Amino acid sequence: MQVWASDFLPSLVIRRELSQRDYFSRSAGKVLLLDYLEQELQFMARCKESGAQTHRIVAMNEEWVCLVPWWAVWPFETMLLPRRPQIYRLDDLQPHEVSSLAALLSQVLTCYDNLFKTSCPYSFGWYQKPLQSSKPEEKCYWQLHGLFLPPLLRSATVKKFMVGYELLAEAQRDLTPEKAAEMLRNAAGVHYLKAGNL
Question: Which of 65, 68, 106, 108 might form a disulfide with 177, Cβ 3.0–4.6 angstroms?
């Protein structure tokens, strides 16, 4: 585990900060990631009504949603979002939200392990509200969110490498976010080691 702190905002955090702040000011105080989450939940409901499985939600419970964002770079990248507004940092979570987060993390990690039939490697991190971004009493544009970034592509032995066009221009997806979410959902259930499916 690594914990990083700095006296400046890294460029990726600045982009997230500016995107969320800009949306907040252009949309009369709406929170970008909460609006996006609502769109994904509505899209999932429409898919289920029509019998389609083409939505991007991997798993969810009362307090949390795990989904493959449409802008994901890594094949099986997922985002964790709390459903309650105004959760800026991990210390804003209520005890029941921490418990439901632990349950969802266990479910998602089992999906990854089952999909690849291995203890799936990944990088994971939280994006919390930058400290200098607003006064504590102000309604804020930020929403806590986490990212899983597993490097695997098709199997435990096939890794995704960012090369060529991806390094020099922009990332290319190996499969759609909808397909990645479907594959992860289909891998849900009992952990493959406990099920005896080696």
Answer: 68
